[in-house]
Design goal:
Number of strands: 7
Order of helices and strands: HEEHEEEEHE
CATH superfamily: NADH:ubiquinone oxidoreductase Nqo5 subunit
Largest sheet: 5 strands, mixed
Distance between the termini: 58 Å
Number of helices: 3
Number of domains: 1
Shape: globular
Structural class: alpha/beta
CATH topology: Beta Polymerase, domain 2
Strand order of the largest sheet: 1-2-5-4-3
CATH class: Alpha Beta
Length: 165
């Protein structure tokens, strides 16, 4: 199954929950409604023809200063899926509004999502509903803010912390 077939299968199964798709330069991407995200991800993993058994990456994008996206959600959550048995890939994205930064966890589907979701929380401030241990991964607990947000002040001074006694 090639990328076009994968996107067609997702469109057939999820209909209007598939907001858009594209296959630019061999990267096959589906933009889905955030409410449908858990079902879409489960289908991608469990459907025999798709068989996406590996979550290669999970990240976010902040479109705060991106021209032409003023009416779109500020953030997107992005899942890169790979099927070892079928040797194919797909990217699943969902918009996340700035005033509701919560996305369902993917840990029950792919345990590696635990670390990816902690990184996204740490860097962007998106929360994952159902995540059992959402705490900072790359930065220390006293760090203020989320440094990959476009509005994070680059000259911000962080609290100094010393060794624990």
């Amino acid at each position: 199954m090639n990328g076009i077939d994968i996107l067609a299968r997702l469109t057939e199964r999820f209909g209007t929950a598939m907001l858009a798709s594209h296959a630019e330069q061999g990267d096959h991407t589906a933009l889905v409604e955030r409410a449908a995200l858990p079902e879409v991800l489960r289908f991608c993993r469990d459907d025999a023809a798709l068989g996406f058994d590996m979550l290669m990456d999970l990240t976010a994008v902040d479109y705060l200063t991106y021209p032409g996206r003023e009416d779109a959600p500020r953030f997107e959550i992005v899942y890169h899926l790979y099927s070892v048995p079928h040797n194919h890939r797909v990217r699943i994205k969902a918009g996340v509004e700035e005033d509701d930064l919560v996305v369902p966890t993917a840990v029950p589907l792919w345990p590696i999502a635990d670390w990816f979701e902690r990184e996204v929380w740490d860097m962007f401030g998106l929360r994952f509903a159902g995540h059992r241990d959402l705490r900072r991964l790359l930065l220390y607990e006293q760090f203020e803010g989320h440094p990959l947000r476009k509005d994070y002040p680059v000259s911000k001074r962080q609290p100094l912390i010393g060794p624990r006694n």
